[in-house]
Amino acid sequence: MASLTDLALGLFTLYLVPRLPRDVDGARYWRAAFVWAAITALVGAVYHGFLVDLPRIGGITWAVMSTMVVVVMSFMLAASVIQVLGRSRAVVFWPLRLLGVIAYLVFAATGNSSITAIMMCESITMACVIGLWVWAWLRGHPAGRPMLVAIGVSIAAAMLRLIPGAAALVALDPDSAYHIGQIVGMVLLYRAVAQSGPPPEAVDGTGSGRASGPDEPSPTPADGRHRPARWIKVPQVRRHGS
Q1: Under a CB-based contact definition with an 8 Å cutoff, are residues 41 and 179 in contact?
Q2: CA distances (Å), origin 187, targets 17, 149, 153, 174, 236
Q3: What element of type H or E holds 120?
Q4: Are 153 and 185 in contact (CB under 8 A)?
Q5: 143 by DSSP, 3-state: which?
């Protein structure tokens, strides 16, 4: 059952990849996160189905698979930073990201790779992602609430595996319950990314639903292609009458 549910998670996530929007900031990082998540789940299906009883090979596979989860988190952080703060400020978060990756590589190299280790090492990364989307939600970002719901469902799915007896409440083993919960989480994450759209506060200070003045630049370029603006408010320059 664990192998089949992991296979379903991988195939379904892979199905969502080409359907992710390409016109939002950080789109390539969201696609990378989904691709890596799909590959991780497919490797997990092989692990649960064929390698779990082979201590040496299974242990190496689990360490590699767990490290891939860390890579998924890296892309999620990159996409969130770019979408909420803009590309110019992404560099601030990479030192924090690097600390989490190094910490988990130490766990994996010493044979202590596990869901618990991932949660411990990725707590800083997850706190940054949640904090970014809380900040965005409070400022009216269309993806703020859906993104927080998706993250909450994924965390709840992890709890089904970490808390003893929690999976029994849904009549499943911990691994299968976790995988099914992650399927729901990936669907909600896909919907949140799809709802991102253009922000209501454009870089030029023109709010959503407000028409541009006669001497203000049009938010749509002459070539007709929409370019989404960042979620950083830029102070407007007051114009003095002549």
Answers
A1: yes
A2: 11, 11, 10, 20, 38
A3: helix 115-121
A4: yes
A5: coil
Query: Is the CB of residue 80 less than 8 Å from the CB of residue 38?
Result: no
Q: pLDDT tens, 69-124? A: 878 888 998 899 888 888 777 676 677 677 777 777 777 677 666 666 666 777 77
In terms of phi and psi (left: phi > 0; alpha: psi -120 to 50; beta: otherwise), the region of 86 is left
Rounded to the nearest 10 degrees, the angle between the axes of helix 174-194 and helix 2-16 is: 10
Written as one letter, the residue type at 15 is Y
Secondary structure of residue 134 in the 3-state scheme:
helix
Q: Is the pLDDT of residue 210 over 70?
A: no
Q: pLDDT tens for residues 7-40?
A: 999 999 999 999 999 888 888 999 999 999 999 9
Rounded (5°) CA angle 168-174-176: 105
Helices vs strands, H then E, count in the chain: 8, 0
Q: How far apart are CA 224 and CA 191, in angstroms?
A: 26
Per DSSP, 122 falls in state T
Report the distance separating Cα 114 and Cα 127, nearest Å: 19
2's CB contacts (< 8 A; 6+ apart) are: 48, 173, 175, 176, 179
What's the one-letter identity of residue 185? G
The predicted-structure confidence for 149-204, as pLDDT tens digits, reads as follows 999 999 898 888 778 788 777 778 888 888 999 999 999 999 999 887 654 443 33
Query: Cβ–Cβ contacts within 10 Å for residue 88, how many?
Result: 10
